[in-house]
Design goal:
By secondary structure, the protein is mainly alpha-helical. 90% of the residues lie in helices and 0% in strands.
Length: 40
């Protein structure tokens, strides 16, 4: 509830949408890097 309120008040809707995508991609990248790291 609070998180959604902050996102709506601080950033516009399209920006929040892009932020979501960026966060998801960052998580994927971090997971990929971690997997590669443990691969060695």
């Amino acid at each position: 509830m609070t998180e959604r309120q902050n996102n709506t008040s601080s950033t516009s809707k399209p920006k929040t949408f892009f932020q979501r995508i960026i966060e998801a991609r960052q998580r994927q990248a971090d997971r990929y890097i971690a997997e590669r790291r443990f691969d060695f």
